[in-house]
Amino acid sequence: MNTYPVNIVNEYLRHSNLKINRQGYSIADIFRDYWSDFLLNNPKLNIRPVVFDNVERMMKCKTPDLGYSFYSCPNCDNFMIVYNSCKSRFCNSCGVKYAKQRAVHTSNVLMDCAHRHITFTIPDSLRIYFRQDRSRLSILFEAVNQTLQYLSLKHGKSKRWKLGYVLVCHTFGRALNFNCHIHALVSEGVINKSGEFKSLTYFNFELLRKSFMKTLLDLLHKTLGHGFYKEKCALYASKENGFYVYGPSLDKKSQKGLIEYVLRYTGRPVMAESRIDDVDHVNRQITYTYEPHEDDLLPDEEKNGTITVTEDIDAFIKKLIVHIPEHQFKMIRYYGVYSSKGRKLIPNYKKKKSLKSLFPLKWKNLMLQTFKFDPLLCPCGATMKYEFESSHYP
Q: Which residues form the signal peptide (predicted)?
């Protein structure tokens, strides 16, 4: 069996992963080609300022407009220019990196115990209130927070037992529709000020469903005023069992990858580019696929299977931009023991340096993990060095 030098294999992999040699059409490409036409075709569409900001940044991602870092080889005349990224959560490339970094950061905070993934959803009729005013998503966070606080109080008021939970807000479903809901990563245990830990393996979902419904409706009633009262009463009448709350228990084997899976899943961009099957430039249409949520709860023989959607590119763009969060709005929040103040209750907890824990997720290592080649390995075999003086940062 022939073995080739590392630098030759690296060059082969580097060339194989060049954009011209990779299959697919990115979301950034779609916006670069069609964003201007979209604005001309929809002059009356009320587009939020944050949408313009994020789209413009995404279209400039890894282009000369955002500047570049300069690397040169100490052994030969070879050099490399790496264009800067946009850091937008709407960008698929930057969003995936953000999700991985968030997973590492959150893993450093969590207690060494089992966790439960619980999803809190709301009826279709309530979604319009959160779409009209994105700041109301904080009400959704607070409703889940109060619900889980009530759950922890049921396990000993006198000793002030506390749960630890991380809440992540999603505004989209797999079909790209506006479907705001909360993913909660909840510790299967409570802790008090003395550092005593008590296991919590039973979650009363009847209590969670009804408590979540009451808390959310009361908060919305307080915000929207008396005009919401009639709808509130109608929901109480039609939702006798409360709003849908789902969180199955997992065995020890499934627990191992739960934290990483949940955090990367909940922090991901709106749509994975691998779901795009085709872009028809002649008819201005895009074809993409998704797996319906309904299949998650059905046996294999009853699943609907992959659904394929072909629609106008303007409609596709409209679906994507509606999910861009407001500037500085926190879509991931920490509560209970996992809040910044509550972490001191965790025995032996030490604040870890974020830069050190995130070092494996720097640009070079992410390229190595994803595309299997070292971007700084020169064809001559030496490692390229960064030169600040030759780099450009607008």
A: none
User: What secondary structure letter does DSSP report for 293?
Assistant: G
pLDDT given at position 268: 72
Same domain for 67 and 129, yes or no, is no
pLDDT at 102 over 50: yes
Dist CA 222 CA 232 (whole Å): 11
What's the domain count of the chain?
2
Q: Are residues 83 and 118 in the same domain?
A: no
Q: Choose among 223, 284, 228, 325: nearest CA to 34.
A: 284
CA distances from residue 24 to 30, 277, 361 in whole angstroms, order as listed:
11, 8, 25
Give yes or no: residues 154 and 198 share one domain. Answer: yes
Q: What is the pLDDT of residues 143-175, one digit of tens each?
A: 999 999 888 776 555 557 788 999 999 998 888
Domain that holds residue 38: 6-89+357-392
Helix, coil or strand: residue 389:
strand
